[in-house]
Amino acid sequence: MDDGRVGVYLHVPFxxxxxxxxxxxxxxxxxxxxAREDRYVAALLxxxxxxxxxxxxxxxxxxxxxxxTPSLLRPDSVARLVAGVRxxxxxxxxxxxxxxxxxxxxLERERLPGFRDAGVTRLSVGVQSFDDRSLxxxxxxxxxxxxxxxxxAVAEAGFRDVSLDLIFGLPGQRLADVERDVAEAVGWAxxxxxxxxxxxxxxxxxxxxVARGQLVRPAEDDVLAMMDAVGExxxxxxxxxxxxxxxxxxxRESVHNRRYWQRRAVLGLGLGAWSCEPPRPxxxxxxxxxxxxxLDAYLAxxxxxxxxxxxxxxxxxxxxxxxEAAFLALRTARGLDAAGFAAEFGLRPRDLYAEAIDELxxxxxxxxxxxxxxxxxxxxRRLSDSVFERFV
Length: 392
Ligand code: SF4
What we know:
Bound molecules: iron/sulfur cluster
CATH class of the largest domain: Alpha Beta
Oligomer: single chain
Number of domains: 2
Helix content: 40-55%
């Protein structure tokens, strides 16, 4: 539901090379040439200028530079982008969250003080694993020692708000490997951890290798045990699961990520970026817009003053919006607030999903309290996809 503010997401598609499991909008560049970087940054700022009107006057809630590998940008480019967003939305809270995703590499380590001076307040470090074998299986460009060196440099540069990314469920990975990853992650005392199960996306080299039997994924039960180990290890260190894949110390939850789960307004800029547009007459439940994934098409459209997305935004009808509201809220520890849901849609969750709620409760996957609020049980979190599909 709309909170009257706006979060801004800037997608930077460049990566040193493309990891075989990745299906994000990315472009392999090796080293990012200055002219290419400058052209893309200019396009992002032009897109911002063309689209800010829809969000005019809204206080800025968060800024997130994601990718791709946004830390391949020079600090002066990051500074231009952050300043551009702040100028477009001058009203911002003190202590505004400005997140930059960082990959562990020497080049990026050297730039950390520059990123800090550019206005970045929070880093999301793509560690993925502290085990070289796992990093090799993932096809990542870095090794564990580089991740450690980056985390040291992050602390030296004075960043206090740090998130680590971990991935589990890799081919050949064992429970003990995941437990070691979690233990080392906790040792770095991050305020936030995102821990994702590896998913094999269609049309990736990974999907081909799995189909050919060249990569064998761990059994489902083993992956569930890994998920439990992640949750237990992080909880023991004071990082609570506030969303299915997101863990934080109190007060360190990601402002930006929460906006998506709460269906708040987000202006997404750049290749393949998604926007959540706020409700307006004719779009009472808001609208969604997605940018093209091809770099040339994106640049050509933006540089000629046209909207980045060729298609008009998708206006959400009530049924789609209800369904999204339900399963996005169920991703979070807070769960689905029945009164808030009724305020927006005129019906309580039970009025619409009584059969699903009763069956999921009987299966031990869902809790319903006296006020009608819904929450996943621990077992429901493990089998969340089978819960969510009942609300679609
Ligand atoms: S570094 Fe991240 S965004 Fe880039 S290719 Fe690898 S997984 Fe994808």
